[in-house]
């Protein structure tokens, strides 16, 4: 199940990032790391991971803010990591869109079990049919949410709500790349 799965580790503690990178890589995952929010956003723009491990307490944008940012454009599974095992923090994290929560220090085996369980839940079954149109379409520095007709500029962080005509025209262009229309 872990073969080829991409995990983004976002933690300001270099030692934690390196330990998680080493452990997850040995377990067959492709690991990408980020030390803070802006770096995380650049890594997300370069390609969406299969799962994100996100530290709560970081300088600049904290994990809660970053979780909200991720949820604006993605349904990628998120496990929040925290040194504080406060129940209220856990509730806030889950309400903001995190899928699981684990307090530091944690055992690597427990973390691996949670990662595998979460990936198992989001893995599409063979009987499910793929939607006719994906929820998100990425191109250049843009991401289109096909359910809300909102176009996100990933580089600048801006969002634009498209009219029906603009959305239809953009979908036409996206459905026929490299063609003169």
Descriptive tags:
alpha/beta; 2 domains; 5-stranded parallel sheet; 4-stranded antiparallel sheet
Write down the domain tally. 2
Series of H and E elements: EHEHEHEHEHEEEEH
The CATH topology name of the largest domain reads: Rossmann fold
Task: Work out the number of β strands.
Answer: 9
Task: Using the CA coordinates, give the radius of gyration.
Answer: 18 Å
Secondary-structure content class: alpha/beta
Number of helices: 6
The largest sheet, given as strand count, sense and whether it forms a barrel, is: 5 strands, parallel
In the sheet with the most strands, the strands line up as 2-1-3-4-5
DNA-binding region: 134-181
Organism: Photobacterium damselae subsp. damselae (Listonella damsela)
Keywords: DNA-binding, Phosphoprotein, Transcription, Transcription regulation, Two-component regulatory system
Protein name: Response regulator
């Amino acid at each position: 199940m872990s073969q080829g799965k991409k995990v983004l580790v976002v933690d300001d503690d270099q030692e934690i990032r390196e330990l998680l990178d080493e452990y997850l890589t040995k377990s067959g995952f492709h690991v990408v790391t980020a030390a803070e929010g802006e770096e995380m956003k650049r890594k997300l723009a370069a390609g969406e991971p299969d799962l994100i491990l996100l530290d709560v307490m970081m300088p600049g944008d904290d994990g809660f803010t970053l979780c909200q940012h991720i949820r604006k454009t993605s349904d990628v599974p998120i496990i929040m990591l925290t040194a504080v095992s406060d129940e209220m923090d856990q509730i806030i994290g889950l309400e903001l869109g995190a899928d699981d929560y684990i307090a530091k220090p944690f055992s690597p085996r427990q973390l691996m079990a949670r990662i595998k369980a979460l990936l198992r839940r989001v893995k599409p079954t063979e009987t499910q049919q793929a939607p006719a149109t994906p929820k998100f379409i990425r191109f250049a520095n843009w991401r289109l949410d096909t359910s809300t007709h909102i176009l996100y500029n990933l580089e600048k962080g801006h969002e634009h709500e498209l009219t029906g005509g603009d959305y239809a025209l953009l979908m036409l262009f996206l459905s026929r790349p490299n063609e003169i229309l």
